[in-house]
Amino acid sequence: VFDRLTGEYGFRVLNASRSVRTVAGDLRRAITNLLEEPAPPAEDNVSNIRTLRQKTAPAKPAANLVDLNKKALP
């Protein structure tokens, strides 16, 4: 499942079988590189969000929801 999600969402794989210090350094560098990448145009982000919403079924509300505002003590 994770391999499929890696391709679908662009996840980056990190080898976590090494020492904590080494993995943390790799993770820090990967995050820094990600943050330094130029952001795509805003219109592309909106299109991507719409596409993702269309792919997923809308969530159904639970039948036994409790309105906490109505249950709050005075």
Structure description:
With 74 residues, the protein is mainly alpha-helical. Helices cover 58% and strands 0% of the residues. The chain is built from four helices and no strands. The N and C termini lie far apart (48 Å). The mean pLDDT is 74.
Largest sheet: none
Q: Count every helix, treating DSSP H or I runs of 4 or more residues as helices.
A: 4
Q: Which structural class do the helices and strands define?
A: mainly alpha
**Helix content percent band:** 55-70%
Radius of gyration: 20 Å
Give the strand content.
Answer: under 5%
The arrangement of helices and strands along the chain is HHHH
Mind sketching the topology for me?
Blueprint: H1 2-9, H2 20-36, H3 42-55, H4 68-71
In short:
The protein is mainly α. The chain is built from four helices and no strands.
List keywords for this structure.
74 residues, mainly alpha, 4 helices, extended
